[in-house]
Amino acid sequence: MPALGLGTWQNDDPEMCRETVRTALETGYRHIDTARMYGNEDAVGQGIAAADISREEVFLATKLWTDDLGHDDVFEATAESLDRLGTDYLDLLYIHWPAGAYDPESTLSAFEELYEDGAIDRIGVSNFEPSHIEAARDVLEAPIFANQVEVHPLLQQRRLREYCRDAGVELVAYSPLAKGDVFGVDVLSAIAADRGVSEAQVSLAWLRQNGITAIPKATGGEHIRDNWASLDLELSEEELARIDAIERKTRLVDPGFGPDAW
Ligand code: NAP
User: What is the rounded distance in angstroms from the CA atom of residue 248 to the CA atom of residue 222?
Assistant: First the structure.
């Protein structure tokens, strides 16, 4: 899975979303993250089609919403998403939240069928705590490839990172720029100024150097390119340690139906 992807939540205007995806792919991105709930799968598919890149080169991930998770609904929702995205397979299909119609046995047996049939290359989960992953592993024979959760320097998720590392589950960081809040943090601004880069790049490099995939959302060429340039930034051990020492716990995505353990 490419370590830097493009997030598309709240990229609602179809024209803008199409252009963003095309620009990102032409900049070098090869990982696009969407979801049925974002209402932009059509535009994402059109952006991929508009770029001069073959489908096989793109790592495409989408997510089923909480009311898509009944056993039969999983097949129907996935077929619709494939159609909207203009593809016959997904690189990664996530369960968006362990909530609503989610039931480990009935939901995951449908995911496993999709995996065995080749409609999805990987099974993913999102907003799962270790207890949810344990319950899912009890009923799945196929591996859980990734858990997508909120991670950034202001919410470092140390316990979950350690759990996922030991369990062999990739961690994908959503809201990796804390929705823009990383720009107001002294440690990040100081490192950014020293290195002549943006706070966004510092945050993305910190994630990458900790083995975490990041999917920042960006809508204009400038932000898309700035985030891409983070791949060239190598933070020193001392800089990484200064970021590790940030002790804030700012959770930006916390709906009422999220896990209680939070
Ligand atoms: P984010 O990526 O942390 O922040 C996005 C914000 O940062 C936007 O306002 C964007 O502005 C701005 N930005 C991006 N690059 C910038 C740069 N280089 N300099 C200055 N500002 C910059 O927040 P997010 O959208 O919440 O998270 C990213 C993705 O994660 C989502 O799009 C979605 O794909 C995924 N996600 C998943 C879940 C889940 O439950 N699984 C939840 C939340 C998010 P512009 O748009 O103007 O560029």
Answer: 29
Q: At what angle do helices 199-209 and 221-228 cross, to 10 degrees?
A: 40
| Residues 111/100, Cβ–Cβ less than 8 Å | no
The separation between CA 164 and the C-alpha centre of its own chain, rounded to angstroms, equals 15
Q: How far is CA 242 from the centre of its chain?
A: 25
Catalytic: 174?
no
**Ligand 1 atom nearest to 183, measured from its CA:** 20
127-132 long-range CB contacts below 8 Å, 24 or more apart?
127/96, 127/97, 127/98, 127/258, 127/259, 128/95, 128/98, 128/259, 129/98, 129/160, 129/259, 129/261, 129/262, 130/159, 130/160, 130/163, 130/167, 131/261, 132/98, 132/259
The position carrying tokens 């051990």 is 237
pTM of the complete model beyond 0.85: yes
Which H helix or E strand runs over 189? helix 186-195
Ligand 1 atom at minimal distance to the Cα of residue 9: 32
First to last CA, the chain: 27
Chain segment 165-194, per-residue pLDDT in tens: 999 999 999 999 999 999 989 999 999 999
26 alpha carbon – ligand 1 mean position (Å): 19
